[in-house]
Amino acid sequence: MIKEVGQTLQDYDRDGYTIFRNVLDPGLIAEASDHVAWLQAKHPDLNGEDLGTELVAGDPFWVRLVGDDRLLDIAELFLGPDLALFASHYISKPPFSGKAVLWHQDGAYWPLEPMRVITLWLAVDESTPENGCMRVIPGSHREALHELRQRDDVENVLGSESAVTVDESQAVDLVLSPGDVEVHHPNILHASNPNHSPKRRCGLTIRYIPTSTRITSDEQPFVSALLLRGRPGANVYQPFPTYIEGEHLPFSGSGGRG
Q1: Cβ atoms within 10 A of the Cβ of 116, count?
Q2: What is the pLDDT of residues 105-145, one digit of tens each?
Q3: 221 sits in which H/E element
Q4: Concatenated DSSP letters for 131-142?
Q5: In this structure, are residues 201 and 132 in contact, taking their beta carbons and an 8 Å threshold?
Q6: DSSP β-bridge partners for residue 215
Q7: Which residues does 129 contact at the CB level (< 8 Å), separation at least 6?
Q8: What does the pLDDT read at residue 54?
Q9: Residue 198 gets which letter from DSSP?
Q10: CATH code reported for the domain at 2-229
Q11: Where are the domains of the chain?
Q12: Among 21-25, 153-157, 205-209, 224-228, which is the least confidently predicted range?
């Protein structure tokens, strides 16, 4: 196992991303899938790509999911033992639709100092080229953060992209099964296409920071910042929510299910 972890970290250092297979069990992934449907019913004004940020800290299941020890153990490999959530976001692309995500670097959008952060991309559904899986340019994490340019000529999730020319012949499709976790660097160039298949493609992005990384937003505590493991460090955090039957999604261990 130590050798496997060592190889995984080497892959991340070389390529800017790596994949951990079968991290979460099918039962919890099924609850995450139910969570997406519940959120969309509760917030009919939001698209499947818009479920995140301001919803996270008040949602007991969301906090339970991002605080799962199996995910935190992965984050600790890259960031050390003092861990906080910066942000989290479902990106759920419905069948035969769903917006593209244009080529970008996550770090270009974030108020963090220093930019020490990783994203865990948790597959809720199978993720394939047909349904719009994530694509990366291996090694591009060694580039500095690029300027952004607005893009309103094509429908896309972010409304912008990195102001660089991307050689898409170098792109790697990240094919994932439910419960797999992909980890990527804030500087890596990545994107995804629309969903051209009859199957939904849903993933949960989880942005972990070491508590030594300061969230520089004027909003303190930041709307989705949660202390998940270890010492609090540089930030102020949101309190953990209390489960209220009838108001929140019932889940295993909540008192409302199982």
Answers
A1: 16
A2: 999 999 999 999 999 999 999 999 999 999 999 999 999 99
A3: none
A4: TT-EEE-TTGGG
A5: yes
A6: 112
A7: 173, 175, 193
A8: 94
A9: S
A10: 2.60.120.620
A11: 2-229
A12: 153-157
